[in-house]
Write a structure and sequence with these properties.
The protein is 52% helix and 11% strand. With 359 residues, the chain is an alpha/beta fold. It folds into 3 domains: 213 residues, Spore Coat Polysaccharide Biosynthesis Protein SpsA, Chain A, CATH 3.90.550; 97 residues, no CATH class; 29 residues, no CATH class. The strands form 2 sheets. An 8-stranded mixed β-sheet has the order 3-2-1-4-8-6-9-7, with helices on both faces. Helix 9 packs antiparallel against helix 10 and helix 10 packs across helix 11. It is globular. It starts with a strand and ends with a helix.
């Protein structure tokens, strides 16, 4: 039986999956000590062909299918087939450079005694474009990423699992259940939130760091951030305690821009306040862009403000779209509740009967 099961959810990852699997196949660990489970969500590119080609020389690589396509469902398929004592999730657009990655993972579990492990996830590419350098630099900034997250930290220690846990003892899934397949983004944070609520521990260690590919285009970045926004809103609906100030500022900013723009057509004072807030916002992102540029020489100062603005706008739009979608049936529910309460107050209702008894 393998000690480690590596679950790799993929869909349309033909451009990167070979590098991900090569990094796993070149581990110093004995192939019999770990298994690689690639779960494909009906890819429309050459992902499956690439995986099958690698299978010819990697005996512990297995290809499974995920008809539901979502990453959350892929993780559950992997968990059902995993035989290892430890389970680690590795996305199909990651790169594992350390040949002792899995050995370090097992050692961290044994030495810490933790239920889950967290890791840094820096954005890095071997030959990054100018845009990728700007996107990677912006995401490390407090203005481009939730400052409460530890995924860009380099300090080992016990932390909350919410945004960082990626590896689990097998018993964790028996304790908190599978991933919630109602999520198509932030499914990892939702699962890790349940881990925290169950009192499970998480040890964060740079020894199992992996590199993530930064998005290569503005459109790709916007799509990614919109998915994050939708996932965060859905997470907040399920667990209200996960709603934080950094998470609601982008959607509130968009609401302010839209409402103040309309109101400004009728009240000049609102228009002046709107103009002042826009100037203040631009000032903040320009100043932060200059700071990031100094700390990251390869990042383009000309691109950073646009990257920051895209992150905020796309995340806010995704959050708001999910919020509105979630309200779709709420008015009917609220009317039904009001009707029941009104009926309860009538002479034949529970409250009406109690009043008549008191009289």
């Amino acid at each position: 039986m393998p000690r480690v099961s590596v679950i790799v959810p993929v869909r349309n990852e033909a451009a990167q999956i070979r590098r991900t699997l090569d990094g796993l196949a070149r581990q110093e660990s004995d192939p019999s000590d770990y298994e690689i489970l690639v779960i494909d969500g009906s890819s429309e590119d050459d992902t499956v062909a690439v995986v099958r080609d690698i299978q010819r020389v990697v005996s512990n690589l297995h290809l499974l299918y995920n008809p539901k396509r979502l990453s959350s469902a892929a993780r559950n398929v992997g968990i059902r087939h995993a035989r290892g004592e430890f389970v680690v999730i590795v996305d199909g657009h990651c790169e594992i450079r350390d040949r002792n990655y899995l050995a370090n993972l097992v050692a961290a579990f044994e030495e810490s005694g933790a239920d889950t492990l967290g890791r840094p996830q820096p954005l890095r590419a071997d030959r990054p474009t100018t845009f990728q350098q700007a996107a990677a630099a912006a995401r490390t900034s407090w203005l481009g990423h939730n400052p409460d997250s530890a995924i860009y930290s380099d300090r080992a220690g016990f932390v909350d699992p919410d945004s960082v846990a990626v590896a689990y003892r097998r018993e964790v899934f028996e304790t908190v259940g599978p991933f919630d397949e109602a999520f198509d983004a932030c499914e990892d944070v939702e699962f890790n939130t349940r881990c925290r609520q169950a009192g499970l521990t998480c040890y964060f260690t740079p020894a199992i760091s992996v590199d993530y590919q930064p998005r290569g285009t503005l459109r790709g970045l916007a799509y990614q951030m919109a998915r994050y926004g939708r996932g965060r809103c859905r997470l907040g609906r399920k667990f209200p305690s996960t709603v934080t100030l950094p998470g609601v500022v982008p959607p509130l900013w968009l609401v302010w821009l839209a409402s103040a723009s309309v109101a400004g057509l009728f009240w000049s004072a609102v228009g002046l306040v709107l103009a002042a807030t826009v100037v203040a916002y631009l000032f903040v992102i320009v100043v932060e862009s200059a700071r990031v540029r100094r700390s990251t020489p390869g990042a383009s100062f000309a691109r950073l403000p646009l990257v920051f603005a895209t992150i905020h706008a796309a995340f806010g739009w995704g959050f708001l779209s999910e919020f509105v979608t979630g309200l779709r049936f709420r008015p009917a529910v609220m009317l039904n509740q009001l009707f029941r309460r009104a009926r309860n107050l009538l002479p034949g209702g529970r409250a009406g009967r109690r009043l008549s008894q008191l009289g």
